[in-house]
Design brief:
The protein is α/β, with parallel strands linked by helices and about 280 residues long. The chain folds into two domains: about 170 residues, 3-Layer(aba) Sandwich (Alpha/beta knot), CATH 3.40.1280; about 70 residues, Orthogonal Bundle (Trp Operon Repressor, Chain A). It is about 30% helix and about 15% strand. It contains eight helices and nine strands. The strands form three sheets. A five-stranded parallel beta sheet has the order 2-1-6-5-7, with helices on both faces. Strands 3-4 form a two-stranded antiparallel sheet. Helix 3 links the parallel strand 5 and strand 6. Helix 3 packs across helix 5 and helix 7 packs across helix 8. The longest helix is centred in the C-terminal third of the chain and has 19 residues. It is elongated, with a radius of gyration of 24 Å. It starts with about 40 loop residues before the first strand and ends in an 11-residue tail after the last helix.
Length: about 280
């Protein structure tokens, strides 16, 4: 304590002793920058709104967020909970371990989140769940083409099935694994979607020429130095012949896709009228 302090004054409270305020109003973490008219918006219902924007506030997505090219509205689920302790979950009907998010609590949060929004075609309602349809680039393009999205981050053993059915939620999964909650999945989904919005990346050509843009994995990339650890950049990439370079990149993309992702390769060949079972070696 410095000598200038009044010994009779009450000690300052530490951060651990502060009492958080509870409000059902969505938290606008990005209140400073103006939101451009018609900007794509992600509303995220979560028990951990402080997790946002997280990595979404960095690099190109963060700059686009600051510029108002897209918007983020985390909605704290806790204030919608029941009783003195704002309970948002309860034990599973029929017994079993863990807890289940309550349908009535989610309904209250959605009543706030969905006010004034357009129909589902323009504003999907997505529940992030391991049992959902796998998220892919085509889904990201569909979400980016709309006006926004509302995401529900699961926790515990999941969400009461009645809420999923009643609201017609679209269940989406990042893959065949289980996370402790949907927040990381929500950030990944938002990142993959936001980068497709015009002006976010600055160079739209980079979006059109990357993995999955045409159903293929991306071709190998190289940069200087021309030779590193005895490995040289392929001569064709230094030839200046853009037609040859384009052909090489296409061939490499096809080869990598066939070797590493037979599922993607089959779908790609079928879309282009080919028979993947009769393909010659690339």
């Amino acid at each position: 304590m410095s000598g200038a302090e009044d010994k009779g004054s009450a000690p300052a409270r530490s951060h651990g002793r502060l009492r958080p305020s509870v409000s059902r109003k969505p938290r606008a973490l990005m209140e400073g920058p103006p939101r451009l008219a018609g900007a794509w918006c992600a509303k995220v219902i979560t028990l951990f709104p402080e997790a946002f924007p997280g990595t979404l506030g960095l690099s190109l997505t963060g700059r686009a967020l600051d510029q108002g090219l897209w918007a983020l509205e985390p909605i704290d689920l806790r204030p919608f909970g029941e009783g003195r302790h704002r309970n948002v979950d309860d034990t599973p009907a029929g017994g079993g371990p863990g807890m289940v998010l309550r349908a009535d609590v989610i309904a209250l949060a959605l009543a706030v989140a969905q006010v004034g929004l357009p129909g589902r075609a323009q504003w999907p309602l997505v529940y992030l769940s391991p049992r959902g349809r796998p998220f892919d680039q085509a889904m990201a393009r569909r979400f980016a083409a709309g006006a926004g999205i509302t995401l529900i981050c699961g926790r515990f053993e999941g969400l009461d099935e009645r809420a999923i059915e009643h609201f017609g939620m679209e269940e989406v999964s990042l893959g065949d694994f289980v996370l402790t909650g949907g927040e990381i999945a929500a950030q990944a989904l938002i990142d993959a979607t936001v980068r497709l919005i015009p002006r976010v990346l600055g160079n739209q050509a980079s979006v059109e020429d990357e993995s999955f843009s045409e159903g293929l994995l991306e071709h190998p990339q190289y940069t200087r130095p021309a030779v590193w650890e005895g490995r040289a950049i392929p001569d064709v990439l230094l030839s200046g012949n853009h037609a040859r370079i384009a052909t090489w990149r296409r061939q490499m993309a096809e080869r990598l896709t066939k070797e590493r992702r037979p599922d993607l390769w089959r779908a790609y060949r079928e879309r282009h009228g080919g028979n993947p079972d009769r393909d010659q070696e690339l």
